[in-house]
Design a protein that fits this description.
The chain has about 100 residues and is mainly alpha-helical. The longest helix has 29 residues. The radius of gyration is 25 Å and the shape is elongated. It starts with a helix and ends with a helix. The mean pLDDT is about 90.
């Protein structure tokens, strides 16, 4: 399932990149004859810096507001793990 998901994400990323280049007016050339205007070059720079910045900001906001990892939750998780560990240790002792 992971490989399939990764392939889908790669296809979306490739399509997004191609769409954005088309949107800003990039002219492709297999022979190297196409020259880009300064506007297109500036837009490429904006895309190369703006899209990652936006995605990082979005990820930060998701982690800040939707990821439920507070100090209270960390302590509760640690207590639960300690309980599970002690139960497993008791079972191992009984098995010996």
């Amino acid at each position: 399932m992971w490989t399939f998901t990764r392939k889908i994400a790669q296809a979306i990323a490739g399509g997004f990149g191609g769409f954005m280049l088309t949107f800003i007016g990039y002219k492709s050339s297999t022979g190297g004859g196409a020259e880009q205007t300064s506007t297109v070059i500036n837009h490429i720079y904006t895309l190369a810096t703006g899209v990652p910045t936006f995605c990082l900001l979005l990820a930060g906001l998701v982690l800040l507001f939707f990821y439920p990892l507070s100090k209270k939750r960390v302590n509760a998780n640690a207590a639960k793990l300690a309980e599970i560990h002690s139960e497993n240790a008791e079972e191992e002792e009984e098995a010996k």
